[in-house]
Design a protein that fits this description.
The protein is of the alpha/beta class and about 475 residues long. Helices cover about 50% and strands about 15% of the residues.
């Protein structure tokens, strides 16, 4: 039989191990997880043929796991198990996409029969998905330009998550288009006719940010000359986008966590909570896992935000889209400025192809806009790009010389990452080999937490399954 990967999620070790033994006897490859949060991290990195999850678990419930799976891997069937067998919970689980429902205690025959039927359904679903993909792929999406494999993955994730109300965390370097993703999620959701409210968390001091988000009552502090409605309430029925969420204080993080849990806000100086109905989308250009380990970002808030992650690739990793983006910006700015620009001279195009774009798509957009203004003929020349290319002794990333302190910081970060990447890869691969490719044991042996070890694998784009196959 095909070696199907099954993920079992239950906070009770006896249930996890019992299911492992039953299913491994049937020839399935079984992985287990003691919590919903850890299960979701695995589902973000690995593909499974089936998930079996308990309904009642501390932290993230089985119902929350189910809803997230239907976005992350919608074709994967989910079986819910619980000791709380009621008609209501069974109906709710089925409404949210569960394949089936089984009550504790159960016999080995009952569970193997449920699994067999679930995998039969999965085979049909995968066939339908394959046919849909054969009919046509996305060559751009919403207001995005690009047809690279990396961007196709982003488009699919937006399409999957948009119809839901799940919280979304968008990660990526500055200039990759995180707000565009947030708007695309909103524009393709049932909330599209309601407000999209964007907040830059770096632009306001802590006390002002809390007032902006939650509102305040007249006289609640010096300068509060009138009652102010918070942006959580302004966005009611729509989407609230918190950009650069890593910059908010621990105090504000605690209040934000409570809002996400309770779905209500209390204005500064107020006593009565106000219910809200919003979809939260957050974005950051920093590694929140690192900030969690440093104690500057709450782990419980991170888990609440990281339900559905969308990681935007830097432009240097999607160079296949470069010509499409150049053509798009060239047409846009030529029309705006009334210029008849036919294209780029060969040496100008070659310069862009070799450039690292530390500022990503935003930087490319600025470069083309400037070049359209400066071009004296109908072709953009190399000098019109005004790129400062370093000599060999000066070279930074891709021959780029930073022009301001922010670009210098970003370039130094990229150089550091590239310098340490080979030793990081050797470190994790050797640890995995010593532990027979078991991530949990490799993490324990190296003294790392499993989620941090997995994050390092993801950053280095190492697939344990592919490595084992090779």
């Amino acid at each position: 039989m095909e070696n199907i990967d099954v993920l079992v999620v239950d906070d009770e070790a006896i249930i996890r191990e019992g299911l492992r033994r039953i299913l491994e006897k049937e020839g399935y490859h079984v992985e287990t997880s003691a919590s919903g949060q850890i299960a979701l991290e695995r589902l973000q990195d690995e593909n499974y043929g089936l998930v079996i999850t308990d309904l009642k678990m501390p932290g993230m419930s089985g119902m929350e796991v189910l809803k997230a799976i239907k976005v992350l891997q919608p074709e994967v069937p989910v079986i819910i198990i619980t000791g709380f067998s009621t008609v209501d919970t069974a109906v709710e689980a089925m409404k949210n996409g569960a394949f089936d429902y089984i009550a504790k205690p159960f016999t080995p025959d009952q569970i193997t029969e449920k699994v067999r039927k679930a995998l039969e359904q999965r085979a049909v679903l995968l066939e339908n998905i394959f046919l849909k993909k054969e009919l046509g792929e996305h060559h751009g999406f919403d207001i995005f330009v690009g047809e690279s494999k990396e961007m196709q993955k982003v488009y699919r994730r937006i399409i999957q998550v948009a119809p839901t109300d799940s919280t979304v965390l968008i990660t990526g370097e500055s200039g990759t288009g995180k707000e565009l993703v947030a708007r695309a999620v909103h524009n393709n959701s049932h909330r599209r006719d309601n407000p999209f409210v964007a907040v830059d968390c770096t632009s306001l001091a802590e006390n002002l940010l809390e007032s902006e988000l939650f509102g305040h009552i007249k006289g609640s502090f010096t300068g509060a000359i009138q009652t102010k409605t918070g942006l959580f309430k302004v966005a009611d029925g729509g989407t609230l986008f918190l950009d650069e969420i890593s910059n908010i204080s621990l105090t504000t993080q605690a209040k934000l966590l409570r809002v996400l849990q309770e779905r209500e806000i209390t204005p500064i100086g107020g006593t009565q909570p106000i219910p809200i109905d919003i979809r939260l989308v957050a974005a950051t250009n920093k590694n929140l896992r690192t900030l969690v380990s440093q104690g500057t970002f709450r782990e419980d808030l991170f888990f609440r935000l990281n339900i559905i992650p969308i990681d935007l690739p830097p432009l240097r990793e999607r160079k296949g889209d470069l010509h499409l983006l150049i053509g798009h910006f060239l047409a846009t700015f030529s029309e705006e400025m009334g210029r008849d620009i036919r294209g780029l001279a060969p040496d100008a195009l070659a310069l862009l192809e070799d450039y690292a774009f530390p500022g990503n798509v935003r930087e490319l957009e600025n470069i083309i806009e400037r070049a359209v203004v400066l071009a004296e003929g109908d072709l953009i020349q190399k000098e019109d790009l005004e790129l400062r290319v370093a000599t060999d002794s000066q070279a930074g990333v891709g021959g780029y010389v930073p022009q301001n302190v922010e670009e210098l910081k970003e370039t130094k970060r990229q150089i550091r990452e590239r310098a340490v990447e080979p030793i990081e890869k050797a470190f994790v691969l050797q640890a995995l080999k010593r532990n027979n490719w078991n991530i949990t044991r490799a993490a324990e042996e190296t003294g790392m937490l499993r989620p941090n070890f997995q994050a390092l694998l993801k950053k280095l784009r190492i697939s344990v399954r592919n490595q084992m196959t090779n």
